[in-house]
C-alpha cells in the first residue's frame, strides 16, 4: 500500500495515528536541527518533519530532496505548534520515521505554485507539470463537476446519451472542416464534425425524442480566448417541442448548475431580440452586467457644420457614469483604442458634464450649449458623467466599434465583475445574412434552422427580413449556448437550400441522407448546444478557455507539448495517396 491517507485528509482527530503518505515535494525548509518538507498530491499539502536528534541519517536524506521528488513516507500524526490556517491540514504534521524516494526529478522549468513564474508558452510546453498546480487542477475538477451535474440533470429529464461518429462527411457551409484522408478510399476524405447537427436530427427521426452527448467538435478557424480548434459541446435535441419548451428546460439546467456548483439562485432570464441587442449594445451577445446603452444622436448632432457627423449614416453615444474626471491623456488613449486596426474607428468625440450642468465638448465650436444640452438630455447624463461618441458610414460596423468602446469603459470603470452574473436569451435572429462579396445569402445559424412560421411567406418576397426560430443564451457577454427549432418539412428544407444557392444536385450530394430520412416521418424538433469550455471558464472566472482544457492548443493551433501538427514521412503520404504542395 503506497498510502493510507491523502495529503489533504489528515486532521487533529488523527493525532497519534501511524500513517503512510505519498506525493511530490513542494518545498523543503531547514531550521536548525529540523528539516520540514511540504508533501503535495491532488488533494492537498501535508507538512513532514525530520528531526536530526531522532534520526540523523533520515534528516540528512531529507536535506538532499529536490523539488518534485516523488516520496513515500511513514510516520505519526502530531499537532503542530505553529499552525498554518492557509491549508486544510495546517493543524497537524507528520513526524517521519521512514522515507522512500520513489522517483527523483529534474528541477522544473517553472515553479509549481499558483503564482508561478512560468509564461504561457513554457507552461503549455510542460503542460503535465502545469496541471500539478492547484489553480489549474481546480479548473479541471470544476469541469468534471459540471459535466457530472449536466448528465444528472438531463437524465432526470428523460434524455438519453448517444454517441455520434467522429469521421463524417465534409459540409463546406460554415467554418472550415478539418479533413482526414481515407487510405481505403483513395482520393476521398472524411471530415471531423463541427457539431453532431445532422446526426442528432436523424436521432429525432429514429424516435429518440430526448438526446444529448458531451462531445468533441472541430473547427478550423482563427483562434482567440474563447476558441480552440477542438472544443466540447453539451449537445442536446428534443422532439415535439417549440422554442418555449427548449428555453424553459435549458434555462432550468443553467439555474441548476449555478445553484449546485456556485450556490447562486438566479432570477428568470430576460429576453432580448437580436434587433435590440444590436441597436443598444452593438453585439448579439451583450454584456448586461452594466448599463451604458447606445443612444442614437443623428437627429441632434447632424446639420450643425461638423462634417464628420453631417456626412455620417450613424451617430451613437454612450454615457460613462462618473467618468468626467478622465484626463486628456486618458481620452487620447481611448481615441487610440478605437482607432486600432482591429476596431477601425476614425476617431472619437467626447463631452463632459461640468459641475454647473453645462456640457464641455471636444467639438464645442460647432455646437451651441442648447444643442449640447439636448444631447445631454437624450443621453440621460448628469453632473460628473462622460459622453463618448462614434460615427460612421456603416451602421452595423459603427455599432460594433461602439460596442468595443463600451466594453473597454466597462473594464476601466470596474463594471465587469467576474463574480456577478447577468444572463439573458437573445431571440429572433435573422434567418439569413447577405454577403456583399459573394452576392448571396448565407444561413446565420445553419441550413436546417426553421424560420418563424409567421415569416415563411417572406421567403419568396423578402428573405432578408425573415426571422429565425433561433435563440442564444448569453452570460456576461459570452455566448454560452445556442440553438434553434429545425426544419422538419422536406419542401421547406428544399426551399431553404435553394435560397442558400444549393443546386438540387449539390443539396442531394451533401444532405441527401437527411432529406431521405425526412420522407419517413420526421417529427417537429429542435435543440441547443452549450459550449462546455466557455461555461466552465465563466464559473472559474477565467479569461481564456485554455485554462479549463487539460491539453489545449496555443494561438497558432499548435500543441507545443507534443509538437503537433507535424509532417508525415514519405511512406505515410504514399500510403494515403497524398502529395504535399506548399505554395
The helix content is: 25-40%
Overall 3D shape: globular
Q: Count up the helices.
A: 17
> Care to count the β-strands?
22
Q: How is the largest sheet built, in terms of strand order?
A: 6-9-10-22-21-20-17-11
Largest sheet, described in full? 8 strands, mixed
Layout of helices and strands:
Elements: E1 18-31, E2 34-41, E3 44-51, H1 56-63, E4 70-79, E5 92-103, H2 120-125, H3 127-130, H4 134-156, E6 160-161, E7 179-181, E8 189-191, H5 197-205, E9 210-218, E10 230-239, H6 243-262, E11 271-273, H7 274-281, E12 295-296, H8 298-301, H9 307-310, E13 314-320, H10 328-338, E14 349-353, E15 359-361, H11 369-378, E16 386-392, H12 395-412, E17 423-427, E18 432-435, E19 440-443, H13 458-461, E20 470-475, E21 478-485, H14 490-499, H15 504-518, E22 525-531, H16 532-540, H17 570-575
Parallel strand pairs: 3-5, 6-9, 11-17
Antiparallel strand pairs: 1-2, 1-4, 2-3, 4-5, 7-8, 9-10, 10-22, 12-13, 13-16, 14-15, 14-16, 17-20, 18-19, 20-21, 21-22
Describe the structure.
It is built from 17 helices and 22 strands. The protein is globular and about 90 Å long.
Highlighted features:
five-stranded mixed β-barrel; 29% helix; single chain; alpha+beta; 583 residues; 22 strands
In short, what is this structure?
With about 575 residues, the protein is α+β, with helices and mostly antiparallel strands. It contains 17 helices and 22 strands.
